[in-house]
Every structure is written in structure tokens, then in C-alpha cells.
Design a protein that fits this description.
By secondary structure, the chain is α+β, with helices and mostly antiparallel strands. It has a single domain, classed as YjbQ-like (Jelly Rolls, Sandwich). Helices cover about 25% and strands about 40% of the residues. It has three helices and eight strands, in the order E-E-H-E-E-H-H-E-E-E-E. The strands form two sheets. The chain has a five-stranded antiparallel sheet, covered by helices on one side. Strands 2-7-4 form a three-stranded antiparallel sheet, with helices on both faces. The radius of gyration is 15 Å and the shape is elongated. Bound molecules: zinc ion. Zinc ion binds next to loops. The site of zinc ion (ZN) has 4 residues, from loops.
Length: about 130
Amino acid sequence: MLKELRVSTRSQSQMLDITGQVSEVVAESGIKSGVCYVFVPHTTAGVTINENADPCVVSDILTETDKIVPWKDGYKHMEGNSAAHIKASLMGFCQTVLVECGKLILGTWQGIYFCEFDGPRNRKVFIKIMEA
Ligand code: ZN
């Protein structure tokens, strides 16, 4: 089963916690034991797993990635959003989370984050859950 989530971002760079939505898809699937793939089909947005307890962690990640990859830095890509492409590749486009007892196996402080780097936009996230 392939499930598509719709995600709306509100700023140029944003990390959106989608753990709840992904958990709902896992519950709906009825699969008790397996693997959940979370795939972002975009080139200027990605997906990562990190702390969802202190929101300062997410803001620090965004602040520091801005320093590592500045928006303007003499890039050649004509569209003018090379920084977003680079940041998306740094985060990656797929995360794999184990499923057991019908639930995502995440660490106590872990959440799944959709990472927008060229927003605001309406985006998609694909979720595939496989029994294993
Ligand atoms: Zn581009």
C-alpha cells in the first residue's frame, strides 16, 4: 500500500513534525510488524529524524544549516535556489522506521520531520509500509 500525505509549509525553511500523520498511516495499514518508508519526492525538501521535545533543536538545525549553505553564494543554477537543493540533499529524501506492535519504533525524543527549504509550498510525502 502506498499512501500520499499532503504537507503545507509556511516559510522558506521549516521543519514540520509529521510523526503523528505517519503513525496514523501505520495504524490504518493494520500491519503489526514491518518497515515504514517515508519518501519525499522533491528536490528542495527532505526528511530527517531528530528531537521533538525541545523546539530549539529544530530552530538550531535551521540556523546552522543556513550558515553552512548560505542562500546566495555565487551558485550557477539559474533557478536561484541552489541552497535549497543542497540542504535537501544534506537531509536526504527517505527515512526508514521499524514498525512493531502496529507502532513506529522511535526513540523517546525522536520525531520525523519534513524539511522544507524552498517554501512556502504545498508538498507531498509518500509512505510505504511493508510487512516483515
Ligand atoms: Zn532549482
